Amino acid sequence: MRTYWWANPGWVALLLMVPICLSVAAMPKKVYLEFDQVRQFFAGDQLLVALASLLAFAAGCGVVGYVTRGARRQRPSSSPPSRILHSHYRRVMIAIGLVAFAGNIAVVLPILANPALIVDFLSGKAAVFSLIKDQTLQIPGLTSVSNLAALFATLYALKAKIADRPLDRFDHLFAAAVFFAVLLRAVFNSERLAIIEVVLPVGVVWFGTVGTRWRFTISMAPVLGIGGIIALFAVTEYFRSWTVYRFYYDDYTDFILSRIWGYYLTALNNGAGLSQLYAPTFDGTYTMNWFHRFPLFPWVAGRRAVVLGVRVPVRHRRVQQHVRYLRADT
Questions:
Q1: Nearest to 4 by CA among 226, 159, 151, 212
Q2: How many CB atoms sit inside 10 A of residue 166's CB?
Q3: Going by C-beta distance under 8 Å and a sequence separation of 6 or more, which residues neighbour residue 243?
Q4: Given this model, what pLDDT does residue 167 score?
Q5: d(CA 264, CA 266)
Q6: Helix (H), strand (E) at residue 118
Q7: pTM for this structure?
Q8: Structural domain boundaries of the chain?
């Protein structure tokens, strides 16, 4: 399977993340105020640390890529590709797919049981979105299994390449059911990332196997991807918040572009604020919240305070004194 530069995380860090970081740091204060960011943290030392980390990550990816290419050249070309028995592959696909389907559909079961609420949501009523969010089934830790949908999508896309049979009708129908459950969760629980996580694996495999004829066009896929992200955001945000924000923006295009940029700006600024104001815990408090909430891991449970949607230990209650700096309309 052919790979392209945009499938290399090192190039993504250099050509996407570095420009975004520089752009966010260069924004004037009025832009931060537009998104309720009273203080700009992402500047100075925080910016330098971010850039140094991205450059180090890109360099590491380059070294790994160089070593991998050298090993590939030394591998005998006559060796047949390894294949996995179809029955084994299908069992794994079904098992992971069922878990992914259950995890995604469980989130929206209370919504599906109330058709009137769905009709109000599709009609664009302003007060319905928050009501739907409140009714989604959120079982701490257990709903994390919904993320297996990305693994299922990868297995689905790769079956024809590494199993001894191509995709059949059952595979397509089963995948459609799993992807439909993901779509419901993404729409009703406002998780656009869930759609991206299942589309990207399939897209990468498809782009890597269409042949050399479309090589240049596919190498420019990130340009199409940016348009796709904006389109996805525009469709989902219309039902999510336009009914409220239509009174604050002149047109929908201005609202969408400003909203998308606000996600990157607030994410980087909030992360820099947490890094600058609070000492590291080295226990995954900020990056592995699901681990602390998972019911099968009682030894990591403890008293916690909820701030900014992130559970932090009680010893960090002083975070409440700075919450006004970290507010973000995301």
A1: 212
A2: 10
A3: 124, 125, 126, 129
A4: 85
A5: 6
A6: helix 115-122
A7: 0.64
A8: 1-76+216-277, 86-209, 279-330
